[in-house]
Amino acid sequence: QVQLVESGGGLVQPRGSLRLSCAASGLTVSSYRMSWYRQAPGKERESVAIKRIDGRTSYADSVLGRFTIARDNAKNTVYLQMNNMKSEDTAVYYCNAEAGGTNYWGQGTQVTVSS
Fold it and tell me: What pLDDT, on a 0 to 100 scale, did the predictor assign at position 110?
């Protein structure tokens, strides 16, 4: 059974930092395209960062230079380091694993940026 479990969300002040974790079981993160998505209230879910099987990364323009996606194969975990956070980063963040058209999702973790 595949499980993706996100953690690390919470309340952070503007210009602060958070690191989200996505611990995977039932699949090997190095064999999947791993992504972080987010969904703000009243908005559609959007892709934030992607880590491809070959190691290449992609980011949404809104987070480029502030967020970093990383993969730890030994821990079978994917991370999202978020720096210089802004109020518009407030959302539920989801971990996604995709391979061959099959998608798995985590339950999401709330991130709130507010003073």
Answer: 98
